[in-house]
Amino acid sequence: MITRKFVKLAALALAVVVSASLLAKTSAAQAAEQKPSYTIPEYNAFQAAQNEKDLAAKIKLLDDFVAKFPSSTLSQYIYQLYIQTYFQMKNYPKAIESADKLVAMGDKVDSGVVLQALQTRVQAFSALNPPPTDADQLTKERDAALQGAKLLDAFPKPAAAKMSDDDFAKQKKPGIAFFDSSAGAAALQMKDYPGAVAAFKAALAAKPDDAVSAYRLGLAYLAMNPPQALDGFWALARAVNLKVPDSDKVKDYLRAKVLAYEQPGCDAQVDAQLSEMLQLAANSPDRPATYTIPSADDLNKVRQGSNIITVISDLQGGGDKGKMTWLAICGAEFPEVVGKIIDEQKSDAAIDFMVYTGATPEEMQAATMANMDVKVWTADHPAAAPAAGQQAATPIPPQPDVARLSKDDGVRFSGTLVSYDPSPFLLHWDMVKVDPTVIPEAPGKGKGVPKKKG
Q1: Global confidence as pTM
Q2: Domain that holds residue 397
Q3: Is the pLDDT of residue 452 over 60?
């Protein structure tokens, strides 16, 4: 599934760098332009460190500066050099430590400088290997990222910036999304799922096409207690539509989660739901209040209150009720169904009896059109291939004697619902076993419409 290697924070961070470059002059060279509040030895030591090209030697010069001038007004620029140098050396813990020291200087530091420090800190944190799991480290990362998002969002347009206020606000949005997404990632790892949801939603508000944030938002919703399943499914569907890395695996993961949440009668039904969800989510960042998927409890209630007559009525009625009924009933076994044979279609190994069932014997006797296709095997046959996650069904022993049943005969059977045609309505059965007591002993001796036992 999604791991840190797919989160291109370095690329996202460029948005922050671009924004920060417009905000204020923040380079160390600014020190030379300000009214001197430092000694000549301080300035010379600072210049020596800034101009040093060897990274290890530069760190030594910076250490020497801090040791000699611990309270220097140039300290913020010294920490800037620390951050840049340690990051270049891939010494990410030290880069983070230096960034924290600079940010801790508060109002003594220009906000543009703080933004750059926070950006590098967050980027360095994402590069740590192995990723930190310590709660204190994760809390600091979350708080630093949230601070960066807030600071960048509130930063005013510089007077020298040649762009409209709206364009400047748009220029900042990728950087805000970068910070919020990073805060969400830390909160998610801390199992602060409400905090993660809030951060990822903020990131997506700033950058709606952020596939990784959409994916992680889905994970956060599903991990909440209780899980916010529908919102989680929708966010994952958005991530798939946005081409999140490993989108095929994310789609499979989403399918498995929907399947576990719903537990429909036939696993294949989830595929149609998944296709619909992906299509709808492609055009709507937020799940509409009207969109829902029934839970396993919802489907169990349908199963408990159903019989073959109510099933047929619900399916013929269509709509949401018909969809839910089929989700619950598809693949279900019914122990005793009665009806009248309207017609039959024979093949080498089976007979499809076209049967009508109704609420009363009188209704069945008067029927002239079938509402069920009852497939009865008359010769050995292989078991149907099981659906994903289901066990193969044991083949029903063939019943060659059913050949003696004919039009207008009554029939009683048990079987499994496998599909239905909405118009003209026809319910399809397989794995059928006909009650031997309704099979005529000789051709033409029907038993009439059997009465339901009990």
Answers
A1: 0.82
A2: 330-438
A3: no
